[in-house]
Amino acid sequence: MIGRLRGVLLEKKPPQLLIDVAGVGYEVNAPMSTFYQLPETGSDVVLHTHLVVREDNQSLYGFASLRERQLFRSLIKISGIGARMALTILSGSSPEEFAQHVVNQDTKALTRLPGIGKKTAERLIIEMRDKLDSHTTGQNHDLTNSVTGLPMQDPIQEAVSALIALGYKAPDASLMIQNIEDKMAMRSEELIRKALQSAGTPIQ
Length: 204
Description:
Shape: globular
Strand order of the largest sheet: 1-2-3-5-4
CATH architecture of the largest domain: Orthogonal Bundle
Strand content: 15-25%
Number of domains: 3
Largest sheet: 5 strands, mixed, barrel
CATH topology of the largest domain: DNA polymerase, domain 1
Number of strands: 5
CATH superfamily of the largest domain: 5' to 3' exonuclease, C-terminal subdomain
Mean pLDDT: 83
Radius of gyration: 16 Å
Oligomer: single chain
């Protein structure tokens, strides 16, 4: 099991990262909550990781904090909640916010996330109630580190692609980005944050 990566951040294309670790490039899927804390490309970065192994695929997931990884691991144990949906949940709420939704039995807040219907929201509330304490304490690990980077891709295209990867339909994702004011001056992470907020998804 790969539990931690430390290397140079080569690419940021939400929801995927490319990290160079001693000459080996690792493709890592990460929630937007982690993307918001990443340094510029070309900088050192540390991620807590989880490896998902299937017969036809191996996927590595990375998180800014142990809390996020722990919540991810709890979520994918729930019937009907795969890794992609777990990333969507973490992209739309912090561990503390998710725990609050569960405590308040707030199915409405959970169903704002793409791909989560009422029945799935109810199942999340039932199965996560006894696991809340481990997701409401602890500190985030800061990923800050400096400086220069590689050429940026088109932020608008990156943002639309990220929303599609999080479960939104392509026309809806494009419309969410188009409705953002001053979008031409924003980075992809900022565009994604505002798009999720406009959809009613709380973001830290």
